[in-house]
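Researcher: Next entry: NAD(P)-binding protein (Calocera viscosa).
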Amino acid sequence: MPASQYVLPGLVVALSLPYLASLSTFVQNHLIKRCTIADYRLSPQSYALITGASDGIGRGIALELVKRGFNVVIHGRNREKLEKVKGELEALGTGGDVKILLVDSGEENVDWEGIGKELEGLEITILVNNAGGMAMPSVSFDAQSYTTIEFALRLNALFPLHLTHLLLGRMRALPGPTAVLFIGSIAAEVPPPYMQAYACSKSFLRTLARSLSFDERRLLHSRVQVHYIQTANVQTKLGVNAAQSWDTPDPESYGRAVVRVVGCGTREVCPWWAHALERGMIGAMGEATAESVMLSALGKPKGE
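Model: Predicted structure:
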């Protein structure tokens, strides 16, 4: 048989490999994998630190971790909201300790020395970098105030960078597996209109997670698992995702999904099955089509 007859089948196989790999990962993470979060509870003194835990995804993750026997440190900038969440967590009756870390993640001069002392001595085995967000601007990037842009960058990129830098060595030194999670966003792949500061911050976290994972696995041979949690729509009390649906889970359901994928071996993972499917479709449809879908979903004119 002439060699040319192998070219087309070989090309088809080569082009199919990425999709087959994605399908294999989807089946493994969503249909086969069992929750291994108990492996990260090294002792009765193990804590999980969840930033942005006064509401939404952070609160959902904290609820699930407390149910699974972890002590938690919940972070936020509003003490009243944090005290309310603390009461909810303690009411679960697991006997776990709940501590509050009160810090404004977006402020210019965070007291990192003070945070270090406040967390000193805690066996933190899971760090969830969840704090973030940005109200969708109604004006173009150049018309936004630089104060707004800088705040978004500090909140979404610099705060998780500094916090991970502060705790990573301590977590690596523990005698068992630990995990660092960065809550990402589909905005890093299909940026919403006018949200350049937010989108590039999530891309920053994506690259940070990849680089840290490379070091921990290949150079330091540590037991630190690093995950970039790719997130699409999750239900919020206010805003465009107010209604729950098959592709827009409530924060508690999403929190359970996040906890379940910890330790799955996949650095970049979509905990919610519908988000994984949507991400695959976005990757297949091309940039221009993905942008048009985004504009249609937001009710904005597609332009040229």
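Model: Note for the record: Residues 33-298 form a domain with the Rossmann fold fold (CATH 3.40.50.720).
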